[in-house]
Amino acid sequence: MADVPSDHKEQIIAQLLDISYDISGRITRLAGENENYLVKTKKGTRYVLKLADEDTTAGMVEIEHLAVERLIDDGLGTQFNIRLPRVIETRTGEVQACLMTRDRKEIRGRLLEFVNGTAWCEQLPSNTNRRVRLGHLGKIIAQINLAMAHIIHPATQRTHSWDLAKADQHRADISSINNSGQRQILEWIFHLYAAIAKPLFASLPHSLIHGDIN
Questions:
Q1: Which of 102, 96, 64, 99 shows the shortest CA–CA distance to 211?
Q2: Residue 180 is inside which H or E element, if any?
Q3: Using CA atoms, how far apart are residues 82 and 57, in angstroms rounded to an integer?
């Protein structure tokens, strides 16, 4: 809905929330490249509505839902004292809500529990506890990835701009960097990537991971 005026967009979102969830409240766009909205009801309950763009397939939505449920089933939240945002199902028990607008545009979105807190990088201490905190984070990442390795879904067989196994897709973009010293460093890094890392990918195990742990 990037090309829809913001006031009209909020009306559409409000309609989606009312029809699919019987929820109404103040709608606020959240920061970031994805189209996410904070929904706050009159009683103060908060949710996050994640709208799906045209590139977000039904399979990708299913994977995200399966991942959270798998982590909860494996006790990750209890083990590390972290909260995971579960999906709020629609009135009909669906993971994703859909709405067809008057101009025949389909709007898809998921309503999630709001998890209050601070980004991990903003809490990172500058003293000797940093190594302890980093070690704890490493354990969380490892357990999350071990749990997600059990998720088998055809939609996982895809690539994207952040795929480390295809990082060289961005090598041509080095020319857009003005600083010659930085360009040389990046060329060196990509050279090592092509010579050392890339030839090994085919022989390494592959699985679903969490690529944005912060």
A1: 64
A2: helix 180-192
A3: 28
Are 210 and 145 in contact by the 8 Å Cβ rule? The answer is yes
pLDDT in tens, 139-148: 999 999 999 9
Name the packing angle between helices 58-73 and 129-148 (round to 10°).
Answer: 120
Percent of the chain surpassing pLDDT 70: 93
**Hey, what are 122's tokens?**
């903003």
Q: In this structure, which amino acid lies at residue 108?
A: R
pLDDT higher than threshold 80 for residue 91: yes
Q: Which residue has the tokens 């749990």?
A: 147
Q: Which residue has the higher pLDDT, 127 or 49?
A: 49
CB 97 within 8 A of CB 16: yes
* Collapsed DSSP state (helix, strand, coil) of residue 123: helix
CB proximity list for 106: less than 8 A, separation 6 or greater: 98, 99, 100
Tokens of 131: 């190594």
In 3D space, the residue among 56, 64, 55, 58 whose CA is nearest the CA of residue 151 turns out to be 64
Helix (H) or strand (E) holding 98: strand 97-100
Answer whether 73's CB lies under 8 Å from 16's CB: no
Query: Is 107 in contact with 12 (CB distance < 8 Å)?
Result: yes
